[in-house]
Amino acid sequence: MFRNQYDTDVTTWSPAGRLFQVEYAMEAVKQGSAAIGLRSKSHVVLACVNKANNELSSHQKKIFKVDDHIGVAIAGLTADGRVLSRYMRSECINYSFTYESPLPVGRLVVQLADKAQVCTQRSWKRPYGVGLLVAGLDESGAHLYYNCPSGNYFEYQAFAIGSRSQAAKTYLERKFETFLDSSRDDLVKHALIAIRETLQGETLKSSICTIAVVGVGEAFHTLDQETVQQMINAFEIVVEDEPPAADPGTSAGEGGAAAEGVSPPEEGAAPMEI
Amino acid sequence: MTKEHANWSPYDNNGGSCVAIAGADYCVVAADTRMSTGYNVLTRDYSKICKLADKAVLASSGFQADIKALQKHLAARHLIYQHQHNKQMSCPAVAQLLSNTLYYKRFFPYYAFNVLSGLDSEGKGCVFTYDAVGSYERVGYSAQGSGSTLIMPFLDNQLKSPSPLLLPAQDAVTPLSESEAIDLVKTVFASATERDIYTGDRLEVVVLNADGIRREYMELRKD
């Protein structure tokens, strides 16, 4: 994007009626690594790509539990995402304390959206540079929302944000009509396939993705690496480097660097992969 | 020139007694289920025992409205802790949090007489006893509430826990087995029910050990 006039302040309109700073904030979301959400009548699945910057560092946490019935996946400035997650957790705790019942997801996303809007109308603030996929369950069923830095929010059957998310969105658009009545495991499988679409050829391993589920009778939680790897193995037809993964002991390590021990011979051939 | 006194008090005493005993690898907490005000019984079926964390159980006697508020406050703080640390609070951690929470309202106290109990990080039973403003101490056993003056001397006689101030440090936990401790607690409450009008109806016993948490009930005299 070329430099524009009228983009110095968030509180300055362009003659075309645009707020460039807000649009730049949405660009930040597109730069972050992919996050995907999809839902059925009774479950919502969040998935994200967890790429560590280098082999030595651990990967960034992009999926946060907000309450037993709500979780969020972020893309963009993860620091902003952490702060917003803390806000959401606090709102859920305060609501439960006052009303002794879980905060309805729709209310939470409105509060989040209003909070984001404030930053688009104060000269001393900047918009949050993070997009949030909010997954939750309440009395009216399972919900997936997307909150933008602009303060807008939309409800989705399935959505993907972040870099190379268009590939995932194309897959989701093809399959979304089956999601409503899908089983929980099928939903997770679709999420994994959608994640694989964003990887553009790179092998899908449980060490580079994180999956979280919330559903009727199932509190929000992240699936552990072993379970995810088993699900990947179940639908991956031909994958040469999967057999060494049969020793779950080594792949149990949460740090991204631990994954190197799983399949060294193949990984050595393509050092550029990580 | 006599001072004018308030004709309304923000506090009330809902009566009842709480007891806890720490064992080598278990912890027994018991409280009666009678809730009263003045000479009247409000209900025969109110639990004074609240689980705050996997290994920490709070039993409180006193003003139940304050106690309910205190429990909710602690539960919310525990949720925040779990979000930040990705694990449950240990019993000693809850003990310190409870003390700080009580002292925070030093000048308008929670009318709550607490006994916190559970398993420490080594799996040994621990019991912490409190006053209304947060002063606390780890002990081998404790009783609080309207029947505490009847119960405590009997526990002293049966359990004879050494002072935590002694050197070399001695184990405060009782050598009794889990079932012996439960029987002791039932005996103690049956006796307290005889003479304390605010204690009775039903006894709720909660036992924490390596297998988890379990609950038992025993009928008490209803007069």
What does this structure look like?
The complex is a heterodimer of chains A (274) and B (223). With 274 residues, chain A is α+β, with helices and mostly antiparallel strands. Chain A has one domain (26-246): Glutamine Phosphoribosylpyrophosphate, subunit 1, domain 1. Chain A has helices at residues 20-31, 78-99, 105-118, 165-175, 184-199, 225-235, 248-251, 264-269; strands at residues 35-39, 43-49, 63-67, 70-76, 130-138, 141-147, 153-155, 158-161, 209-215, 218-222. Chain A has a five-stranded antiparallel β-sheet with strand order 8-1-2-9-10. A five-stranded antiparallel β-sheet of chain A has the order 3-4-5-6-7. In chain A, helix 4 (165-175) packs antiparallel against helix 5 (184-199). The model of chain A is unreliable at 238-274 (pLDDT under 50). Chain B is α+β, with helices and mostly antiparallel strands and 223 residues long. Helix content of chain B is 30%, strand content 32%. Chain B is built from four helices and twelve strands, in the order E-E-E-E-E-E-H-H-E-E-E-E-H-H-E-E. Chain B has helices at 64-85, 91-104, 148-159, 178-195; strands spanning 17-22, 26-32, 35-37, 40-43, 49-53, 56-62, 112-119, 125-130, 136-139, 141-145, 202-209, 212-219. In chain B, the strands form three sheets. Chain B has a five-stranded antiparallel β-sheet with strand order 10-1-2-11-12, with helices on one face. In chain B, strands 5-6-7-8-9 form a five-stranded antiparallel β-sheet, covered by helices on one side. In chain B, strand 3 and strand 4 form a beta hairpin. In chain B, helix 3 packs antiparallel against helix 4. The longest helix of chain B has 22 residues, at 64-85. The termini of chain B are far apart. In chain B, 42% of the residues are buried. The mean pLDDT of chain B is 95. Chain A binds chain B through residues 65, 86, 89-90, 93-94, 96-97, and chain B through 72, 76, 79-80, 83.
